[in-house]
Amino acid sequence: MDLPDSYSSYDASAVIAQRGHFQLILFELSSAVVISIISLIIAISHQDTTSRIGFLIIFFIFLIGIILQLYASKKQYERKWFAFRAVAESIKSLAWQYAMACGDFNKAKDANKLLIQRIKDVKEIFQINPYPKTISIGVLDEIKSSMVEARKIEWQDKRDIYIIERLEDQITWYTNKAKNNRQRSELYDGLIIVLQIVGIGICLFLLYTLPIINGAPALALIVTLIAGIIGWSRSKQHAELVEPYQNAARELNNIGQEIKLADEEADFCQLVEEAEQAISREHIMWLAKRGLCKVSTLE
């Protein structure tokens, strides 16, 4: 089913803001690693020319870092990413309830007008506009023909559409995200262990080497790499997101089984509302913890 143009704009804006946020984090972490490598080269080279070139490179890395930090403070990529995603997912949920003729859209005298107003309300809550390049040229098409057609069919047919295009799609997304996050969490944990073993090896080598070699720069590089991996993994929240995604997929799967057994339209609509609440619950709490909205605002 096609979704409102506003959803597409905010969804694309969320992707752009998310990419900008993580690109800045990646630069910060990689800069620390590069500086550690250059420091190690300076320490072992004992050449004035190499040292001067190394310090000059480090100088520019710090300078670029300051500029990017000021740029990030102005752009507020993280806050915009969360806000864009919240608006997009809220509009998506409203569109599905409208198409299924459930919730407030079941007996509304003018469902079209109600949907437009609800979308407007969601935008006003977060008071943020999508990036201009993501907005369609011309009048926004908030009510797609496929949404209107879905309202006209029998509720049993709506049920099939909802299960396949909404629930199964969302369950697959949650399942894949849980799997990918678990794999990446395990990968980064493994890399950290390997680096720690390397650090132990360097220490043992230095202990039994005569004359004693200054191994501090090498150990500093190992520590920087470990800190960088930990920082990147935590910024992506790989370990923290596995369980919430698994729980969300499990809850939606249970609701999906109940929807398949629904005998009446009223039961179907009630379960659709439960499913939409389940999809948005974790995201709403995620936003609330960051002070971007009150939980009661979006419930």
Can you offer a commentary on this structure?
This protein has 299 residues and is mainly α. It has one domain. 81% of the residues lie in helices and 0% in strands. The chain has helices at 5-45, 48-75, 77-99, 111-126, 145-152, 155-207, 216-236, 238-260, 265-289, 295-298. The longest helix is centred in the middle third of the chain and has 53 residues, at 155-207. It is elongated. 25% of the residues are buried.
Summarize the structure.
With 299 residues, the chain is mostly helical.
Element-by-element helix/strand order: HHHHHHHHHH
Q: Please tally the helical runs, counting DSSP H or I stretches of 4 or more residues.
A: 10
Question: How large is the radius of gyration?
Answer: 26 Å
Largest sheet: none
Can you give the helix content as a percent range?
Answer: over 70%
- Fraction of residues in β-strands: under 5%
Class by alpha and beta content:
mainly alpha
The global form is elongated
Distance N to C terminus: 24 Å
Which regions are unreliable across 5 or more consecutive residues at pLDDT < 50?
A: 295-299
Please give the domain count: 1
Using brief descriptors, characterize the structure shown.
mainly alpha, 299 residues
Helix and strand topology:
Blueprint: H1 5-45, H2 48-75, H3 77-99, H4 111-126, H5 145-152, H6 155-207, H7 216-236, H8 238-260, H9 265-289, H10 295-298
Helix pairs in contact: 1-2, 1-3, 1-7, 3-4, 3-5, 3-9, 6-7, 6-8, 6-9, 8-9
